[in-house]
Amino acid sequence: MNEYTDLSPEERFAAVDRMASQLFGTERWKTLFADRYDISRQAVGKWAHNGAPVWACVALCDALEAAKLERIRQELGDVAHLEP
């Protein structure tokens, strides 16, 4: 978490923008983020001007790691089905 507390709010928004685009597969991620984390779209929209909170960076980092882990599990499952 130190990684994100050392960033300015504007730098955190840039990190959120990058990670959310990657997680949701679109640059139009604000509504998807708001729905997933149960906050208003207006609050997420304000981050572009005020900067993003640390928790948003941490949540997206965790979600990306979970998605990566799930892909690895699926790949291992696919390989296990191929072995005799």
Description:
- The chain contains five helices and no strands.
- The protein is mainly alpha-helical and 84 residues long.
- Helix 2 runs parallel beside helix 5 and helix 3 (30-37) crosses helix 4 (41-50).
- It is elongated, with a radius of gyration of 16 Å.
- The relative contact order is 0.15.
Give a short synopsis of this structure:
With 84 residues, the protein is mostly helical. Helix content is 80%, strand content 0%.
Number of helices: 5
| Euclidean distance between termini CA atoms | 44 Å
Biggest sheet layout: none
- According to DSSP, the number of beta strands is 0
Uncertain parts: none
Overall outline = elongated
Query: Mean pLDDT, rounded to whole units?
Result: 91
Q: What structural class is derived from the secondary structure elements?
A: mainly alpha
Task: Tell me the β content.
Answer: under 5%
Q: What is the helix content? A: over 70%
Q: Please provide the ordered H/E string of secondary-structure elements.
A: HHHHH
Alpha-carbon Rg, integer: 16 Å
Describe the oligomeric state of these chains in a short phrase: single chain
